């Protein structure tokens, strides 16, 4: 029998919301509309529902569909961490908002060995 | 006519009510069941939240608003109502938004057609496959989740054994998922992962495969009564008689397991039209919210409805379990009712029934004030008791005001309109259809 879990969600379960200015200074003064990127996490896959987003504030809306806790970490090409959610428990959600320049960014879950098991994807940020 | 439009959809606007009252029952039934020529369309302004178009894939709650908007603006409400029925019947949750939206489109496409075709698509649907672990169920490790729910919840209810579940699980093996950088790539059938041995299922022996299982469960003697009874309960509050179940089952079987003829028969049944003055079916939260917007000529302009639906206990795309939601009086918890009142606030503040300054002088009689409010909220059905209570309220609303000031107390007249409209949208009559 499948577990008939009572599920979900929302208002009280948003664990983290952070705005990290990766490009402080000029970029911070430019008015650019946010772009939302839905991200689904489960054992052991990470799916970004957009392959690309325009430069500016990118709002990653993470939902943990898995059984275990996961997180979302965004890194630039050099491997520098630009922002992270906290641990997101099963069925919960978190938002991570970052101001991103054009380039390719890596999204991973860095809990335990989840990244190595497959919880990684990329997103391209365009001009 | 109002009863039919509520049960088969999300209520009638005053214009629809007048038009179809003139057309008669048979013509109205044809329109409601078959939909407009050329198929469903969306009419009215597209939804915008915060000035932006919806982004159902990427913004939480916009998937719900996207579907709710279809219920509000569709020209074929029965299609959306049946999509809701199948979403509950084949309850799926905890899957990536793109998969859930794809499943929703499939349920809509199949909503009124062949049940066997619908079942085939559901069985191969990626969201369902992942939810009930049919994907990656192999000959070496067959997973019984889908086989069990297929018989218990989707097609039979009873009349099968644990051995049937195990044998069906073997026959359903072979689906394999492929994942990539963007999540699920595909679910494919791989013959080398399928158990091609001999199985015995529901009395039939052979090298059974996926479609054999679906054919056997839908040919089982319990299937038709099970499904028509569940469909009946979606539309009619009183349980069907044995004779009714027999007749609906015969309609279903003789049509080749088509859904539309059964729904047509239910919607034409006299039991649906008993006690027209006393509605007895509780509106589920989705119907309550979509109906309040649709019948008042309001549209999606805020994201509040998503969060209200969650608190009311029916957030689409997130049923509480594979068994779907608990229906009926369970919808009327104290917390849910509080949110239904909050929805009334939303509609009278952001929807078409909002009260404009200078539109309702305090000099109106109680009857004039109530009639104006009633028209503003889409001329809903109101019982004599509710009408008397509202008239009493309107008649006493200015008791604290010196009669000489009523000419200039427009704001009090507007407050009365706001109160009456809110109460008409949230009173006990508004919770039933």
What does this entry look like structurally?
The complex is a heterodimer of chains A (127) and B (433). Chain A has 127 residues and is mainly beta. Chain A has a single domain, classed as Immunoglobulin-like (Sandwich), CATH 2.60.40.420. Helix content of chain A is 6%, strand content 47%. Chain A has two helices and ten strands; from the N terminus they run βαββββββββαβ. In chain A, the strands form two sheets. Chain A has a five-stranded mixed beta sheet, with no helix packed on it. Chain A is globular. Mean pLDDT of chain A is 82; it is low at 1-30. With 433 residues, chain B is mainly α. Among the domains of chain B are: 1-34, no CATH class; 112-273, no CATH class; 366-431, no CATH class. Helices cover 52% and strands 5% of the residues of chain B. Chain B contains 20 helices and six strands. A two-stranded antiparallel sheet of chain B has the order 1-2. A two-stranded antiparallel ribbon of chain B has the order 3-4. In chain B, a hairpin with a 2-residue loop joins strand 3 (175-180) and strand 4. In chain B, helix 12 (223-235) crosses helix 14 and helix 16 runs antiparallel to helix 17 (334-350). The termini of chain B are close together. The model of chain B has no long low-confidence stretch (mean pLDDT 95). The chains are: A mainly beta (127), B mainly alpha (433). Chains A and B meet through strand 2, strand 3 and strand 10 of A and helix 9 of B.
Summarize the structure.
The complex is a heterodimer of chains A (127) and B (433). Chain A is mostly beta strands and 127 residues long.
């Amino acid at each position: 029998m499948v577990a008939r879990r009572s599920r979900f969600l929302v208002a009280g379960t948003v664990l983290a919301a952070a705005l990290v200015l990766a490009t402080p200074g000029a970029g911070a003064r430019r008015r650019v509309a946010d772009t939302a990127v839905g991200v689904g996490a489960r054992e052991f896959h990470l799916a970004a529902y957009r392959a690309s987003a325009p430069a500016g504030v990118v709002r990653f809306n993470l939902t943990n569909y898995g059984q275990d806790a996961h997180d979302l970490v965004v890194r630039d090409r050099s491997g520098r961490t630009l922002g992270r959610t906290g641990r997101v428990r099963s069925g919960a959600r978190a938002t991570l908002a970052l101001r991103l320049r054009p380039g390719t960014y890596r999204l991973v879950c860095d809990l335990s060995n989840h990244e190595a098991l497959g919880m990684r994807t990329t997103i391209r940020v365009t001009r | 006519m109002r009863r039919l439009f509520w049960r088969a959809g999300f209520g009638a606007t005053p214009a629809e009510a007048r038009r179809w009252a003139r057309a008669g029952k048979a013509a109205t039934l044809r329109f409601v069941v078959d939909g407009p020529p050329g198929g469903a369309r969306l009419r009215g302004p597209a939804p915008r939240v915060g000035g932006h178009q919806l982004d159902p894939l990427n913004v939480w709650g916009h998937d719900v608003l996207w579907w709710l908007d279809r219920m509000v603006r569709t020209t074929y409400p029965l299609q959306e109502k049946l999509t809701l029925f199948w979403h509950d019947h084949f309850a799926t949750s905890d899957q990536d938004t793109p998969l859930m939206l794809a499943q929703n489109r499939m349920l809509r496409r199949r909503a009124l057609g062949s049940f066997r075709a619908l079942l085939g698509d559901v069985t191969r649907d990626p969201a369902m496959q992942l939810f009930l672990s049919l994907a990656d169920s192999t000959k070496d490790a067959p997973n019984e989740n889908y086989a069990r729910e297929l018989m218990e919840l989707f097609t039979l209810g009873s009349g099968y054994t644990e051995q049937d579940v195990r044998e069906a699980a073997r026959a359903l093996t072979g689906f394999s998922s492929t994942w990539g950088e963007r999540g699920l790539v595909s679910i494919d059938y791989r013959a080398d992962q399928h158990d091609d041995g001999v199985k015995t299922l529901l009395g039939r022996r052979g090298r059974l495969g996926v479609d054999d299982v679906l054919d056997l469960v839908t040919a089982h003697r319990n299937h038709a009564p099970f499904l028509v009874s569940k469909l009946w309960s979606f539309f009619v509050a009183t349980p069907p008689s044995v004779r009714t179940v027999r007749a609906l089952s015969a309609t279903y079987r003789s049509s080749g397991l088509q859904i539309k003829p059964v729904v047509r028969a239910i919607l034409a049944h006299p039991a649906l039209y008993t006690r027209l003055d006393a509605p007895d079916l509780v509106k589920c939260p989705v119907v309550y919210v979509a109906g309040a917007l649709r019948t008042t000529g309001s549209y999606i302009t805020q994201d509040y409805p998503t969060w209200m639906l969650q608190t009311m206990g029916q957030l689409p795309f997130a049923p509480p379990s594979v068994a779907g939601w608990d229906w009926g009086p369970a919808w009327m918890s104290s917390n849910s009712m509080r949110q239904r009142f909050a929805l009334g606030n939303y509609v009278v503040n952001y929807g078409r029934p909002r009260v404009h300054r200078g539109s309702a002088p305090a000099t109106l009689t109680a009857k004039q004030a109530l009639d104006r409010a009633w028209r503003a909220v889409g001329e809903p059905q109101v019982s004599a008791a509710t009408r008397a209570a509202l008239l009493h309220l309107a008649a006493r609303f200015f008791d604290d005001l010196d009669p000489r000031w009523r000419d200039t107390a427009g704001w009090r007249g507007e407050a009365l309109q706001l109160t009456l409209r809110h109460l008409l949208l949230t009173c006990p009559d508004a919770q039933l259809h």
